[in-house]
Design goal:
The protein has helices spanning 18-31, 54-57, 60-76, 94-105, 126-134, 166-186, 201-207, 211-241, 243-249, 260-271, 293-299; strands spanning 6-10, 34-41, 85-91, 109-113, 139-142, 152-156, 189-196, 252-257, 275-279, 305-309. It has 2 domains: 1-126, HUPs (Rossmann fold), CATH 3.40.50; 149-320, Rossmann fold. The chain has 320 residues and is α/β, with parallel strands linked by helices. Strand 1, helix 1 (18-31) and strand 2 form a beta-alpha-beta unit. The protein has a 10-stranded mixed β-sheet with strand order 3-2-1-4-5-10-9-6-7-8, sandwiched between helices.
Length: 320
């Protein structure tokens, strides 16, 4: 399955590329996609030693750009026999320039190593979260030091009890397509998770003459509707993969009652998931609210790689 046509891989100029570049090259091969590798440098570099050549001293930014580009080309040279790789330097704040590159050059995936700030109990740093909120294309944040191949992939989907609205159904299809494709290519186990709640349970208990029975019937009704939604997803995935691939993959479906911000990270930890594929669908019509509160809370707790998908038509607040 070819899901990507033009991949942007953000590399840290001070680190060896490692599994991140291997993943990017493999993706480009499998998708027959173009691959661009980029590194970001500050607009006003500090701490750059003065060169012997006085012409460089007049423009330290040009010197830094040239050095980083040479280092980037050297790091990626060993992979160019497998796929052509374009190298570029982004100048400015990394997440802003990354989003601008996506808008300008039409990348359909950003692949980057998570910042993993040591002073915080979370995997994703400030720039990571900005990218997840504002980048219009899918963002794949890889865990530092992680394997180039995954053993377990968890796809987190949303379901609407009255039948999925078009934007929810569309993003669910994309999540399942990406997660299943990666599971097949990595020979990984695929788990599909929907976490649901029964928000009216407390109200029903408060006015019913038989609170326990009324609540039980209400919760059971909610669960049955979610089960129908999961069956629709199971059918959609089976149609997309075909009978043979579905039988080979044997995806596991999980329907769990609970709070998504707590249950999704807990499930990822229990399964020892290497990757969580999820949507970041926020409410529309509110300026600046571009990622769902649930997604934000989940991302703050995950300790594995994440591939975050936005709905088609998402408009980034970052402009060229």
């Amino acid at each position: 399955m070819n899901h990507f046509k033009h991949i942007l891989c953000i590399l840290d100029g001070g680190k060896l590329p490692g599994s991140l570049l291997e993943r990017a090259v493999s993706l480009a091969e499998n998708n027959q996609a173009r691959l661009t590798c980029a590194a970001a440098i500050p607009e006003r570099p500090t701490g750059v030693p003065l060169p012997l050549d006085p012409s460089w001293a007049a423009d330290p930014l040009a010197r830094l750009r040239s050095e980083r580009l040479a280092a980037l080309e050297a790091s990626t040279h060993g992979y160019t026999e497998r796929v052509p790789i374009d190298c570029k330097i982004l100048v400015g704040r990394p997440f802003i320039e990354t989003v601008r590159a996506v808008l300008r050059d039409g990348y359909d995936l950003v692949l980057k190593e998570a910042e993993d700030p040591g002073f915080l109990p979370r995997l994703f740093g400030s720039d990571d979260m900005h990218l997840l909120r504002k980048c219009p294309c899918p963002v794949w944040l890889v865990k530092p030091g992680g394997s180039a191949n995954y053993g377990t992939i968890l796809a987190s989907v949303d379901l609407d009890i009255e039948g999925d609205p078009p934007e929810v159904a569309e993003i669910n299809r994309r999540i399942l397509a990406l997660a299943s494709s990666l599971a097949v290519s990595d020979f990984a186990s695929l788990h599909v998770l929907h976490v649901w709640d029964a928000p009216g349970e407390g109200i029903i208990r408060s006015w019913s003459e038989d609170p326990d029975l009324a609540a039980l019937r209400y919760v059971q009704g909610e669960r049955e509707r979610r089960e129908l939604g999961m069956e629709r997803l199971r059918h959609t995935l089976g149609e997309a993969l075909g009978e043979e691939a579905t039988g080979y993959l044997s995806p596991h479906f999980h329907l769990i009652k609970g709070a998504p911000p707590e249950t999704i990270p807990a499930m990822a930890a229990r399964l020892q998931a290497d990757l969580v594929v999820m949507g970041t669908l926020g409410r529309t019509g509110i300026s600046g609210l571009i990622i769902g509160n649930t997604a934000e809370a989940v991302l703050e707790q995950l300790q594995c790689a994440v591939l975050a998908v936005k709905p088609h038509g998402f408009i980034s607040p970052v402009t060229i």
